[in-house]
């Protein structure tokens, strides 16, 4: 029995996926993928499964996600699931299909939030002056 552990990151979210031989069960933070809310996040996580084809039903996938918002978590889980499936199956045709569809599914997005600086409410904007 082979086990593959992969990670996915997006903004401040970090996902760890464990892919093992099984019969197609997928759990995100302990709950089945079918009941993950909101729907848009669930569909985002299902994308690599649709592109992979029917072969993913041979594997059980457990994902634990921490940090960030629900969409960042969905993208991190999506990346972890995609890399785990590719690593487990060694199916490079599916890998090229995924990269052609959306490169961030396998290659991380390096953008992070810019730290706040002094003299203003955020990273770039400054406090206003009136001189009156």
What's the short story on this structure?
Helices cover 33% and strands 23% of the residues. It has 132 residues and is an alpha+beta fold. Strands 1-2-5-3-4 form a five-stranded mixed beta sheet.
The backbone outline, from C-alpha atoms, is elongated
What's the CATH C level? Alpha Beta
Number of helices: 3
Give the total of beta strands.
5
Widest sheet: strand order?
A: 1-2-5-3-4
**CATH architectural designation:** 2-Layer Sandwich
Task: Tally the structural domains.
Answer: 1
Structure characterization notes:
The protein has one domain (3-105): Ribosomal Protein S5, domain 2 (2-Layer Sandwich). Helix content is 33%, strand content 23%. It has helices at 39-52, 70-89, 92-101, and strands spanning 3-10, 13-21, 26-28, 31-32, 59-66. The chain has a five-stranded mixed beta sheet. A hairpin with a 2-residue loop joins strand 1 and strand 2 (13-21). Helix 1 runs parallel beside helix 2. The longest helix has 20 residues, at 70-89. The mean pLDDT is 94.
């Amino acid at each position: 029995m082979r086990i593959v552990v992969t990670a996915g990151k997006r903004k401040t979210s970090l996902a760890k996926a464990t892919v093992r031989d099984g019969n197609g069960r997928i759990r995100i933070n302990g709950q089945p993928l079918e009941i993950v809310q909101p729907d848009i996040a669930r569909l985002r996580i299902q994308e690599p499964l649709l592109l992979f084809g029917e072969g993913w039903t041979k594997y059980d996938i457990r994902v634990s996600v921490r940090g960030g918002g629900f969409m960042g978590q969905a993208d991190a889980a999506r990346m972890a699931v995609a890399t785990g499936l590719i690593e487990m199956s060694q199916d490079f045709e599916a890998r090229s299909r995924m990269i052609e569809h959306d490169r961030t599914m396998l290659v991380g997005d390096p953008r992070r939030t810019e730290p706040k600086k002094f003299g203003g409410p955020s990273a770039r904007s400054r406090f206003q002056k009136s001189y009156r």
